[in-house]
Design a protein that fits this description.
The chain is mainly alpha-helical. The chain contains 20 helices and no strands. Helix 8 packs across helix 9 (136-144) and helix 14 (209-240) runs parallel beside helix 18. The longest helix is centred in the middle third of the chain and has 32 residues, at 209-240. The chain is globular.
C-alpha cells in the first residue's frame, strides 16, 4: 500500500482516474454491437460470415480513427480531445436509437461506434503523462484497464436488449457518457510531457521499423483481446446453444480477467521488463489458442478463454510499458498509431471465425490461424530484442536508469 501511495504521489491521481473512466466508458460503447450480436443476428437472420463482418466493422472503424485523434490531441491537448470525442459519441448513439432498424444501418452504426474506439492512445498518454518513466508502465496499465468496459457491455447490454430491444440500448448508453465527461472536466489536468513537433515529425512513426514491430506485437495482444471479446457472445451462443444473456455472462468472465491483469502486466513489466513479459504471453497464448480450437466442454472452454484473456491483458500492459520508453515525447501519437493497427488486427478474428464456420462447419481454423500469426510475431520480436537492448531499453525491456 505504501508503494502504491508513493506511485500516486509521483504523478496526478485525478488525471489518471479520469483517463481510466473515459477509456472504460468509451470501450463499453465500442463493443456494443458485439455484445448484442446474438440479438441483432436473430433480427436479420444473418449468416456466420455476415455476423463476423458486422462484429468487425466497429473494430476496424475505431482502429482507423485512433491515429487522427492522436494527431489532434497534439494540437488541442489530450483533455480537450477526449471531451470532443465523448460529445461525438453521444451524438452517434442518438443516431443509433432513432434511425437504426436495418442490417445496412447496423453496419453504418458500427462505423459510428468506432468513434469510441479511438480513445485508446489519448487515454493512456493523458493518464500516464504526469508520471516518471519508471512508473509509466503501471500508470498506463491502470488507464488501459479501462478496457474493462467490455465487461460493462456484455453484462448489461444483453439483458437490456432482451427487455427493451437492442436499438434502445444505444439510447440508454448515450446518457452514461455524461459521467466520464463531467469527471474529465473537473479532475483532469493536461500533462506537462509535451514537446512541440512538426506534423512531419509526428508522422515519422508511420515509417519507422520499430513502429511496425510494435504494431505486430499489439495486433496479437490487443487485437486478440478486442476481436475475441466482440466475437465470444456469438461463439458461446452458436457453439454451445446457451441463451443470449448467458453468452454475455460467459464473455464477461473472460473479459474481466483480461482487463484486470492489464494493470499487473504494466507493473510486472516495470520490474521484469516488457520484452520478458511478452515472451511469456506469446508462448501461453499460442498454446491456449491451439487447445481451444478443439471442441471441448463448455466449462473447460470458458476456463481456457479466461486464461487467454488474462495473458492478452498482461501483454497489453507490457507493450505499453515499452511505448513511452521508445517514444517519450510523442506517446499519444505513436500510441494511437500502434493502437490503430492493433485494433485493425482485431477485425481478423471475427471474420476468420465467421468464414471458418460458414465454409468448414467449425470455428477451429479461425483459432489456428490466430495461433500461427502469433507464432510469427513472437519470433519477430525476439529478433528485434537484440537491437533494442542497450539502445533504448535495458536487458529484457526494463527502463534505462536515469543519469
Amino acid at each position: 500500500m505504501a508503494g502504491f501511495k508513493t506511485f500516486l504521489k509521483s504523478g496526478h491521481p485525478g488525471t489518471l482516474f479520469a483517463s481510466f473512466l473515459y477509456f472504460d466508458f468509451c470501450f463499453a460503447i465500442w463493443v456494443l454491437n458485439g455484445a448484442m450480436a446474438p440479438f441483432i443476428s436473430e433480427s436479420f437472420n444473418l449468416t456466420p460470415a455476415q455476423k463476423g463482418f458486422m462484429i468487425s466493422v466497429p473494430i476496424m472503424s475505431g482502429a482507423l480513427m485512433r491515429f487522427p485523434l492522436g494527431i489532434l490531441a497534439q494540437y488541442i491537448g489530450r483533455k480537450n480531445a477526449a471531451l470532443l470525442e465523448m460529445g461525438l459519441i453521444s451524438i452517434a448513439l442518438a443516431y443509433g436509437y432513432f434511425l437504426v432498424d436495418t442490417y445496412s444501418e447496423v453496419l453504418n452504426m458500427g462505423v459510428l461506434l468506432g468513434i469510441a474506439g479511438a480513445s485508446f492512445g489519448v487515454a493512456l498518454s493523458l493518464g500516464s503523462g504526469w508520471f516518471p518513466p519508471e512508473k509509466k508502465g503501471l500508470a498506463m496499465g491502470i488507464a488501459g484497464a479501462g478496457n474493462s468496459g467490455t465487461v460493462l457491455a456484455v453484462l448489461f447490454a444483453p439483458p437490456l436488449a432482451q427487455a427493451y430491444g437492442w436499438s434502445t440500448v444505444y439510447g440508454l448508453a448515450a446518457f452514461t457518457m455524461m459521467l466520464p465527461m463531467v469527471v474529465m472536466m473537473v479532475f483532469a489536468k493536461e500533462p506537462p510531457d509535451k514537446e512541440h513537433h512538426s506534423l512531419k515529425e509526428l508522422l515519422k512513426c508511420l515509417v519507422e521499423k520499430d513502429g511496425w514491430a510494435f504494431n505486430s506485437m499489439y495486433i496479437i495482444t490487443f487485437g486478440g483481446f478486442i476481436g475475441l471479446s466482440n466475437f465470444l457472445p456469438t461463439f458461446f451462443h452458436d457453439q454451445f446453444g446457451v441463451t443470449k444473456i448467458q453468452a454475455g455472462q460467459l464473455t464477461m468472465l473472460a473479459a474481466l480477467m483480461g482487463s484486470g491483469i492489464r494493470v499487473v502486466g504494466g507493473y510486472i513489466s516495470d520490474r521484469w521488463g516488457g520484452v520478458n513479459t511478452l515472451t511469456l504471453v506469446y508462448i501461453a497464448v499460442i498454446i491456449l489458442m491451439i487447445a481451444i480450437s478443439f471442441e471441448l466442454p463448455l466449462a473447460v472452454t470458458t476456463i481456457l478463454f479466461m486464461l487467454v484473456f488474462g495473458f492478452l491483458g498482461m501483454g497489453n500492459g507490457a507493450v505499453f510499458q515499452l511505448v513511452p520508453l521508445r517514444w517519450p515525447t510523442t506517446t499519444a501519437v505513436t500510441g494511437s498509431m500502434i493502437g490503430e493497427i492493433g485494433a485493425l488486427g482485431g477485425g481478423f478474428i471475427p471474420n476468420a471465425m465467421g468464414l471458418s464456420k460458414q465454409y468448414t462447419g467449425t470455428f477451429q481454423w479461425g483459432f489456428l490461424a490466430f495461433a500461427l500469426f502469433a507464432t510469427a510475431v513472437f519470433f519477430g520480436m525476439k529478433r528485434e530484442q537484440r537491437i533494442w537492448e542497450g539502445k533504448w531499453i535495458e536487458k529484457g525491456g526494463k527502463a534505462k536508469a536515469r543519469r
